[in-house]
Amino acid sequence: MKIDIQTSHAIYKRVVPAARKFSRKVVIISFLAPIYTSTVFGQEETAAGRVPDYPISYDLPSVENVKGVLKRVRTYYEASSPQTIVNSKTGERITNFGTFNPLARPSNGFSSEWSYTHGVVLSAFDYISKVTGDQSYVALNTKFYDYVVTHLPYFQKNTSWEAGEKIGNWGRILHFEALDDCGSIGAAMIKTYLNNKNEKYLPMINRVDEHVSRNQYRLADGTLARNRPQYTSVWADDMYMSVPFLANMGVLTGKKKYFDDAVKQVLQMGERLYVPEKELFDHGWNATSAAYDPRFYWGRANGWTLMAMAELLSVLPEKHKGRDKILHLYRSMVRSLANLQDGAGFWHNLLDKPDTYQETSCTAMFTYAIAKGINEGWISHVYGPVALTGWNAISTKVRPNGAVDDTVEGTTFAHDNTYYYHRGKSIYATHGYGPVLYAGAEMIRLLQNEKLEILKAKPNAINSTYHFLLKSEWPKK
């Protein structure tokens, strides 16, 4: 017979008055003891419902496991395009470049694109090679950029291309109109040049610099801006589309002006977009609505800002006067994001609205940036489990063939929740590939970080979690 606590108390109230006519102690002990034993202490007889049932693995991944995920993504990327020039009507490869064919286009596929999403992948490949020593990743960078500089003159000789016109997968490569056209992939080109010193890359790098530093529309105070959707708008996305390039130009040239401009972009965009009470970035700002601009905390936009700051902090001189202010933005965002991560390890498409879907690209961006901050000492090691559960979540979105799933499609700067709530997601939104690669590389560093000791969660335990400990804080054994 199973009686719950509430019922047993009701029986108690009925029994005690009657028991007073006889022997209070005998009746109470003999009647209530089996009831309380079966209802209270009986809970110890089974662990069902007491051991956490995690929706995604709560195990510590191995370095080899992480490398396996990265290899799958690379394999998928490599298979996406042959990196050739083809007839856009027939699909046949063009090998004779003596006479220009107006139907000539770069072959379809992600690995042929001159695009900002491809730029993130190529920067990640460079980073993976640095972290693991596996040069097969950065070799893919050389392969792509050699493909571009070899065939670009073929298109440049044809003077009929008009400003704004796109050349298939290479977009507006001949006439940059926006930071999206050149900033991210230009940053990766600098990294690749520093690796292989191919002088043929420099004219393109200088063209990108000309656009970012001089031609792109700016506000009166020098903040990079756009003339869409409102005539004067600042996008959080543009922090990544500009700052990594400027930072790497500083590395390439040694000129302080590039670091200064990069810092200015972070801080001045932050003045318009960063919301202190949320410790997050609004997706965009319009001059027309100014201080009363509506706010939407889109996941990937915040990912772009955090990745941009991580890139800049990695190369910014330690004594630069803007470094501490950037570190504050970085640290405060991490604090907020740790709280906004859901119980499966993901972040949502709108960060403050958990009824929007779990989104892969921003989850990867935050996982990378948080792991990076721990490895570099910018944030406390106590954030380790946030990065760990983020990586475990990401790995479930990498299909066996290496395709990265559930990445939100390209998203404009919008002004209504309905738009953000219902954005599509797929493996064809290439914004997720580079961040996943970056996150994996940084997780390898975190797992191999000799300054840390990781206390693992015990499997099938009622109460056990991960603790990342800084060895130097503890007495030597």
Number of alpha- plus pi-helical segments? 15
The tally of strands reads 12
Question: Which band does the percent of strand residues land in?
Answer: 5-15%
Structural class: mainly alpha
Shape: globular
The biggest sheet amounts to:
2 strands, antiparallel
Widest β-sheet, arrangement of strands = 1-2
Radius of gyration, in Å, reads 28 Å
- Estimate percent helicity: 40-55%
The overall pLDDT, averaged over residues, is 92
Terminal Cα separation, in Å? 54 Å
Note poorly predicted spans: 1-13, 15-41
State the order of secondary-structure elements, H for helix, E for strand.
HHHEEHHHHEHHEEEHHEEHHEHEHEE
Question: In short, what is this structure?
Answer:
With 477 residues, the protein is mostly helical. The chain has 15 helices and twelve strands.
Question: Could you explain the architecture of this structure?
Answer:
- The protein is 49% helix and 7% strand.
- With 477 residues, it is mainly α.
- The strands form six sheets. Strands 1-2 form a two-stranded antiparallel ribbon. A two-stranded antiparallel ribbon has the order 3-6.
- Helix 12 packs antiparallel against helix 13 (384-395).
- The longest helix has 21 residues, at 136-156.
- Mean pLDDT is 92; it is low at 1-13 and 15-41.
